[in-house]
Amino acid sequence: MKKIKKRGAVYGVIALLLCAAVYLNWSYVDAPEELLVAGQTDADTASDTAASGEGEDYFATSRLTREQARDEAVSTLRELSESEDADQAAKDEAAAQISALADDSVTEANIESLIRAKGYADAVVMIGDSGVNVVVAPPDGGLQATDVTVIKDIVVSETGMTAGQVKIVEAE
User: Fold this and answer.
1) pLDDT of res. 81
2) Whole-angstrom distance, CA of residue 48 vs CA of residue 43
3) Structural domain boundaries in the chain
4) Among 72, 129, 149, 156, which residue has the fewest nearby CB atoms (within 10 Å)?
């Protein structure tokens, strides 16, 4: 009985840490400018934004925060999988989640590359348990229905999710 409670606690901690990582990822994606300018003076911020372009900053910052959140989750899962206190089932679950995160990372990079190959300036993709979010730099004239169809086709073919699970947002 004690072993079952311990296993449940370990699974609960894993789930809590993954939820925290996903929340941090989404909250940073919503406010990348705040992350970018933290610790800089207004003059530094203005020159950085002018030098690199705001659109590029958004995509670079989104990728960075996504990877940082994922790295934290992997680090925590790796600690759990190497812990002597955890039972084998918890270690196996942690290893499976690490593998799934790595697969998601590769898939996100592939989708981003394919979207750029179709002629879009840039995109950032975030795969979650219930769907895929894509933020894309809009072409001149904004995203049209044909653009959404092209991007959804790429995502569906790479992830196996349904078109209803894909959300496409135009970066401003």
Assistant:
1) 85
2) 9
3) 2-170
4) 129
Domain 2-170 has CATH 1.10.287.4300: yes
pTM for this one?
0.66
Cα torsion through 164, 169, 25, 37, rounded to 10: 180
Residue given tokens 């705040």 in the structure block: 34
94 contacts 81 by C-beta, under 8 angstroms: yes
In 3D space, the residue among 82, 87, 92 whose CA is nearest the CA of residue 9 turns out to be 87
Please list the residues that pair with 125 across neighbouring strands: 134
Q: What is the pLDDT of residues 125-162, one digit of tens each?
A: 999 988 999 999 988 888 899 999 999 999 999 999 99
d(CA 157, CA 111): 9
For residues 121 and 165, what is the distance between their CA atoms, to the nearest angstrom?
23
